[in-house]
Amino acid sequence: MDKGYGIPAQSLSPETLLQILEVTRQLARPFDLQTLLAEVGRAAESVLRAERATVWLYDPADAMLVLSGADAGNGVRVSLDRGLLGRCARTRQVVNVREVESQPDFDPEADLDRNNDVRCLLSIPLMDGENLVGVLQVVDKVDGMFSEEDEHVAVTLAAHCVVAIQRERMTRAMVRAEKLDREIALAREIQISTLPPEMPVLPGYDVAAAFRPADQTGGDTYDLVQLDEDRLFLLLGDASGHGIGPALSATQMTAMLRVALRLGADLDSVFNHINNQLVEDLPEEHFITAFLGILDTRQHEATFHSGGQGPLLHYRANTGEFRWMAPSTYPLGFVAYPTVKPAEVVAFEPGDILGLISDGVYEYGDAQGKQFGMEGVEQVVRNHHDRPMSELLEALVGEARRFAGDMPQQDDVTLVLLRRMTDGVEAAA
Asked: Cβ distance 322 to 381 under 8 Å?
């Protein structure tokens, strides 16, 4: 007969009640899932005086029941259209069969009648509300057939089993989450450690930079390396995507750049070799947009390659003009270069500003989908161009956030701002 969970309560013997209480106590102990399910099987065998009990977990991905517990190593999977086991799972009803041979849907393979000796069988759906968790199947009562009291006991045991399974799954999920949090925290620590601890001090120039990731880690990065008293290496990079993977890609690029600079490589060689290495290292369809440049404070010019990084802002103080420069070539890691074309040059007059700004600033959007854009950046620079670069940077980030209103930050925000000082004006400390 098929029955649901609405079985009328019956008085249980003190011995049976004590057994169920002991099972409940045992299932409250910390177990890994397979050990827990094996314990459930042993408890069902003991309480119901059965020769065998198995626990099957439902895999919703392919609508299959998977044998678990002591027999999990067999890798047995059964579809819901097979056997009394499948009938129980399909109908979400208790299946109590006194003579299995009389049931046309009895399947010796699915119902594990390995020795052709199964007489009676009791299957109980494991339910979490309306959701199927699995099936508890109990075979061959030692001293007869399974009674209605046995059904009631089995349903009670099944309910405790579901609680234990869900508790173990939640515990496992929490452990995974904590482990992931630790890994993310470590990745963030490594990423932050690659950023310059302080801004370089250059005669006649004011520099400010910041990195504000959208996630706990981000794909953006920047670097400022003082090559000598007159030259500063500038980097702003943005690895495609968000999270740990792009963060590691950005960190890898920064590490390679620092090694190359320490070895005295010139800008063209650095850009070419790192690009070709990233083509080999990065997964397909991943890349890094990056500005690599060297500022010469004696010549008052920056020589650079911009692989997909743009637009680049050049504010000309003497005219108030905004010059927006497009990327000079493809993103790093996109395609291998046999050679690299000559670097571009931007010259600085007193008061000029070079803005390396990631797309997270331009693409800050409001509730209507309008973006902060180049116009928003221009307005802020126009209003604050004569202030220290640290103040201009905070103004840019603050105005972009105010523009977005209640909309959250969707992308990493990274800025490197560089200004040639006017005569008699010093950069803020």
From this structure: yes
Same domain for 230 and 344, yes or no, is yes
Domain holding 161, by residue range, is: 2-175
Looking at the structure, do residues 212 and 350 belong to the same domain, yes or no? yes
Here the CATH number for the domain that contains residue 378 is: 3.60.40.10
> Which residues are CB-neighbours of 320 under 8 A, at least 6 positions away?
382
* Closest by Cα among 123, 122, 125 to 147: 122
Classify 127 in phi/psi space as left (phi over 0), alpha (psi -120 to 50) or beta.
beta
CA–CA gap between residue 352 and residue 204 (Å, rounded): 12
Length of the chain: 429
* pLDDT the model gives residue 216: 56
Residues 127 and 202 in one domain: no
3-state class of 191 per DSSP? helix
Spatial distance between the Cα atoms of 326 and 74, rounded to a whole number of angstroms? 61
> Is residue 290 domain-shared with residue 242, that is, in the same domain?
yes
Q: Which residues contact 426 (CB under 8 A, 6 or more apart)?
A: none
Whether 31 and 113 map to the same domain: the answer is: yes
Return the CATH number at 29: 3.30.450.40
Same domain, 137 and 242: no
Query: Count of domains in the chain?
Result: 2
What pLDDT was estimated at residue 330? 87
Q: In Å, how far from its chain's centre is CA 429?
A: 39
Whether 213 is covered by a domain: the verdict is: yes
- pLDDT per residue as tens digits for the range 329-388: 888 888 887 778 889 999 999 999 999 999 889 989 888 989 999 999 999 999 999 999
- Average pLDDT of the residues in 132-146: 91
pLDDT (0 to 100) of residue 18: 59
Domain boundary among 143, 175, 207: 175
Same domain, 371 and 400: yes
Q: Check whether 70 has a pLDDT greater than 60.
A: no
The kind and range of the H/E element at 54 are: strand 50-59
**Model pLDDT, residue 29:** 58
- Are the C-beta atoms of residues 356 and 291 closer than 8 Å to each other? yes
Tokens of 114: 């390995």
Q: Which residue, 383, 405, 403, is CA-closest to 392?
A: 383
Instruction: Give CA 319 to chain center in angstroms.
Output: 47
Q: What is the pLDDT of residues 170-214, one digit of tens each?
A: 777 777 766 656 655 666 666 666 778 889 988 899 999 998 877
